[in-house]
Amino acid sequence: MIVLVRHARVWNPEHLVYARLPGFHLSEEGRVDAEAIATKLSAAPVAAVYSSPLERAVETAEILAGHHGIGVAIDDSLMEWSFWAHWQGMAWERIRERDPDLLERYGRDPASVWPQDPLEAVSRRILRFADRVDRELGTAGPDRVVLAVSHEAPVIAAMLVAQGKSLDGFHTVNLPHLALVRIRPEPAGPVEAADLTAEVPVVPVASESSEGPR
After folding, report:
1. pLDDT tens digit string along 39-94?
2. Would you say the pTM of this structure is higher than 0.85?
3. CATH number, domain at 166?
4. N or C: which end of the chain has fewer CB within 10 A?
5. CA–CA separation, 158 vs 83, rounded Å?
């Protein structure tokens, strides 16, 4: 079973768009939250933990892996969506004054707003990662769990595509920090930590507006 994890909360007192920038680490609250979910997952049969190369994901993954005595494998397939790098280092409040048209297009049609790296391509790289890991480790059953720590946009996009849904629904999905999303085997969807010690049922997706990556 392959489960995507959104990283824990980040120390970002200046409210910057950190996107793919280095140097953004988990906040104390984020570490506490990650330890709490790691404790809940300590009884799960976790065979491997993968992470995006960005610090906030790696630190989350290290906390999760530490409860199982295993290391973290870094995989670029789990990287943040490159769209946000257009504004990285900028305060969130300045985006609208600098790029109002681009922000409007993102709100109206996130799937096609960034043709250099469309959400469809982002979803496919995550799903290719999942298929590769499945072949390498054999994760078809509930007795072998792989955790993969990534970011809000890639996780949402991969989940929607795996569910056969349109990426037009991207903004309707609320994905909190440390949310768990089963991606393989299908059906894909959010799960609870306690479910990973047994056959995993899929729970309904909350429908709220997404404000963008944090």
Report:
1. 999 999 999 999 999 999 999 999 999 999 999 999 999 999 999 999 999 999 99
2. yes
3. 3.40.50.1240
4. C
5. 16
